[in-house]
């Protein structure tokens, strides 16, 4: 009986470790979902290895435990590679950004979301899958008179960017080959400091290779926008995914020390961050926090404060 239990633990642990280790050989899109959960899966494999060792003292359990620990440690290292140094608390906030995928069939909560947005104090608001807010747009425009999306720059209401300040040359373009109008580009002047804003909504990473093509589009676009830059939205994957690592590293993007988990809702703080807010120097993230209420969405929203690095 012990041999059977040990064998089950060992086989399952080996399969999990093999799946998340394939990233070091080839970035295979069908496994991207598992790459995002590398830290979670490695910890689970470590626990399973300990359980197997308690059932039967065997060298293989020690081996899988060692591999699990190495993969978990490397997951932490990868997540922290792009963390920006803490900025002086006394440095004033230049602006506040909200980014939230509210889910396109979430009409029952449209009014509550609009009220939350108005009361948030955010200077700029990125709303993805924004159709539930279409009926609330006249009320939102009283606080945010400048916007793009939902009839401005696009017929459908998928992406909506609201601002208290004028949007300079806002436009919407496609990302990759699968979906249309999922990248909004605009510039906002904050008392003489112009900041570029990119609001992006990427495909799920296991939809063939479309996610990688969308990353390539971002890598091509970002260098054409000099100066401070914000990239925010729903990326449908964590920064542990290989293509996200490539985006962050090649474009010099930064994030906070611990990105808030935004999905799945049921996991709360133990989920993963698939919604992100990134900055590019001289712009720096001062803080990023999760909006406590998901308002019926399958994502949590994010609120971020930015400052300029002297």
TrEMBL record:
Membrane spanning residue stretches: 28-53, 60-79
Entry coiled-coil feature ranges: none
Pfam families assigned: Exo_endo_phos
Protein's UniProt keywords contain Membrane: yes
Ranges for domain Endonuclease/exonuclease/phosphatase: 98-292
Keywords on record: Endonuclease, Hydrolase, Membrane, Nuclease, Transmembrane, Transmembrane helix
Keyword Transmembrane helix: yes
Domain of life: Bacteria
Molecular function GO terms recorded: endonuclease activity
Family matches, as InterPro entries: Endo/exonu/phosph_ase_sf (IPR036691), Endo/exonuclease/phosphatase (IPR005135)
Protein name: Endonuclease/exonuclease/phosphatase family protein
